[in-house]
Structure formats: C-alpha cells, structure tokens
Amino acid sequence: TGFQQYLWDLSNIYSQILKNPDYQPPLNSYSRGLSQILKNFTEEEIKGISESTEDEIKTKDGVTFDFKGDRNRPFIVSHKLSPTRLKAMKAIAKPIGATVNDVLFAALFRSLYKTMPENKITTLPCPIDLRKYYLPKDFKTGICNLNSFITCSITSSLDDSFTETLAKVKQAMDLQKKSSISLKGKKKEGGGRGGG
Question: Which band of pLDDT confidence, cut at 50, 70 and 90, is reported for residue 97?
Fold first, then answer.
C-alpha cells in the first residue's frame, strides 16, 4: 500500500542519514493519480465500467444492520492471530484455492447468520489494493492511495457447513476480482503528479 511504501522510504532516508549526515534523498516525479491505472484502459472500456450495474449491492429482500454507537467516539476492534491459528486457516483454504481473507469473510458471514433470517442476501465490502490487480509488480508510483473496494454477496444458510460457506465466499470474490468493477466511479479521480 501507499502507506507501507511511505514507511519504507522514510526508514531508508533515516538509515542513509545515519551513514552520511550530508545525504539528500532524491526527488521523484512518479504519478500519484489514478491515471497510471486508467491509462491501461480504452475510453470505451472506462465508459463500460462507469455504466456497469453488476456491483449494485443487493439490498432488495436482503439484510441491513442497525449499527449503534457514539459517532464522536469511533473505535477499531483488532484481533491478533497466533501462528498456529493462521496455519490452520491456510489449511482450510488451500483445498479449494481460497485465501485467508476468504476464510475470515466466511467466519464473519457465519457469525452474522445467527442474527438474520434464513435465505437472505448479505453483502459485505472488502477493500483491495489496485496496484496488485492493475500494475506490474515492480511498477513505481508516487506515495498515494490506490485503494478501492469490491463487495461480497452471499445468501445466508445455517444449514451450510463452514466449507460450503467458504466456497460461496470464494466464488463471489473471484467474480469481483475478475471484473474491473473496483474502478467504477474512479475516472474523475484520475490524474495528479508530485515529487517524492
């Protein structure tokens, strides 16, 4: 991500200064805009992405969540996985070609099943790094946010085993990853350059 790149660059600058107090970091003019991704698409393809409806969240006959809390005191819940637990999750995912992220989503869906009616569509957003899908591995960018999100929609069923829920999640996520829907609404954000 852009923040990770920033930390690496900042650490490198301080490391170089420790070796040489006169060190001056080089400036760069890498793009910080979405244009570096959109330039790989034709205008017709971008128009098709913008007008696509395949990513519309399925709220009809679906489930909504009445989240409550103090808007002035937002918080983030975090949980640390042990190496043993992570290894077990990878073992569950591997047979069907799923990811650890898919396993986490399946677990979240199953916890939500307990609070929702049977056979209702539930949709959850998943952030993604656009660099991973649309730029070469060694492509240099300016420090910037190139994140978007895809949605995962599946039908609730308490009768499903964990593996069956995982398979549903994987199928939904794979369809989203294969499309360019994560770029929808991004065209107007294109452009932008700056020094490093």
Answer: very high
Please check whether residue 106 is in contact with residue 166, taking contact to mean a CB–CB distance below 8 angstroms: yes
**CA-to-CA distance for 129 and 32, rounded, in angstroms?**
14
Residues 6+ apart with CB under 8 A from 65: 112
Which two three-digit tokens encode residue 81?
A: 């996985």
pLDDT of residue 26: 78
- pLDDT 10s digits, 11-48: 988 999 999 999 888 776 666 666 667 776 777 766 66
Buried b / exposed e over 145-183, threshold 16 CB at 10 Å, is: ebebebbbbbebbeebeeeebbbbbbebbeebeeebbbb
**Tokens 């017709």 -> residue:** 44
Strands 121-129 and 147-155: antiparallel
